[in-house]
């Protein structure tokens, strides 16, 4: 695999970390570069890009959403000065 092909592949992975080795093989084939999927994986591993994908999870769980709503309802009538860390007198 040439250095140019490696750079091209690394740029694609940086743009989309979820791209698979199979998809990378197809995109390199469009550029007339024939590489096996295992070679792609090995090359990515050498460059510090391992077979991990970012975890898909919501930023807030249902439990946290409910707790935030409860807190907000409990503190609806609290005066403004309660929330100020330092008084500005």
From TrEMBL:
Leader sequence residues: none
GO biological process, one term: DNA integration
Sequence ranges of Basic and acidic residues compositional bias: 9-20
Region ranges (Disordered): 1-20
Pfam families listed in its UniProt record: HTH_Tnp_Tc3_2 (PF01498)
Source organism, top-level taxon: Eukaryota
Domain Transposase Tc1-like: 6-77
Protein name, as recorded: Transposase Tc1-like domain-containing protein
């Amino acid at each position: 695999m040439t250095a140019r092909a490696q750079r091209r592949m690394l740029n694609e992975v940086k743009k989309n970390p979820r791209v698979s080795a199979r998809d990378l093989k197809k995109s390199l084939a469009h550029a007339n570069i024939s590489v096996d999927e295992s070679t792609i994986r090995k090359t990515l591993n050498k460059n510090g890009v391992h077979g991990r994908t970012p975890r898909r999870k919501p930023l807030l769980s249902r439990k946290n959403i409910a707790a935030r709503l409860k807190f907000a309802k409990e503190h609806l009538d609290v005066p403004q000065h309660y929330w100020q860390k330092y008084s500005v007198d």
